[in-house]
Write a structure and sequence with these properties.
Shape: globular
Helix content: 25-40%
Strand content: 25-35%
Order of helices and strands: EHHEEEHEHEEH
Number of strands: 7
Structural class: alpha+beta
Distance between the termini: 33 Å
Number of helices: 5
Radius of gyration: 15 Å
Largest sheet: 7 strands, mixed
């Protein structure tokens, strides 16, 4: 019997997926619990500082199980046009390219919205976050924050 890796599917997420997104994170001691406001965020009822109404989320699934997720919104924070709000990959799927795939998908959505300058609040409790974003072209913006001057150009150059 072969143990081939599961095929990863990326799909648009909705508020109906919020419970699956938070459940995939339960038990991950390193990452901690998901944001309790995620359903409200996806439903447009929770607005991070300077967030605009436009937002999108995507799921990465493997054999129907959530392997990771990403979400972002349009913003005016720090002269950015978009903000990456959530990015999570389940431990069993880390270092498999899923985070990059999810970021590419969100990047396409930002591009469809005319948003190029994208910021992200970097969780310093996650030691791999800053090097990951930097490896994909993000630059320091201010303490705890990084940004892509033009996320579509930056990420497409790395494909």
């Amino acid at each position: 019997m072969s143990s081939e890796p599961a095929s990863i599917q990326i799909q648009r997420a909705t508020v109906a997926d919020a419970s699956r997104m938070t459940e995939c994170r339960s038990g991950d001691q390193e990452a901690g619990p998901a944001d309790a406001r995620m359903a409200d965020y996806l439903d447009g009822r929770h607005h991070p500082q300077k967030a605009l109404a436009g937002r999108a989320a995507f799921l990465a699934t493997a054999d129907g199980d959530v392997a990771g997720y990403i979400a972002g919104h349009l913003t005016r924070r720090f002269a950015c046009e978009g903000e990456l709000q959530y990015l999570y990959v389940a431990p069993a799927f880390r270092r498999s390219g899923i985070a990059s795939m999810l970021l590419q998908e969100l990047s396409r959505w930002f591009g469809e919205q005319g948003a190029a300058r994208i910021c992200v609040d970097v969780n310093d409790d996650s030691p791999g976050a800053r090097p990951f974003y930097a490896s994909l072209g993000a630059q320091p913006l201010r303490p705890h924050w990084m940004f892509w001057p033009n996320i579509q150009t930056t990420l497409s150059a790395r494909e």
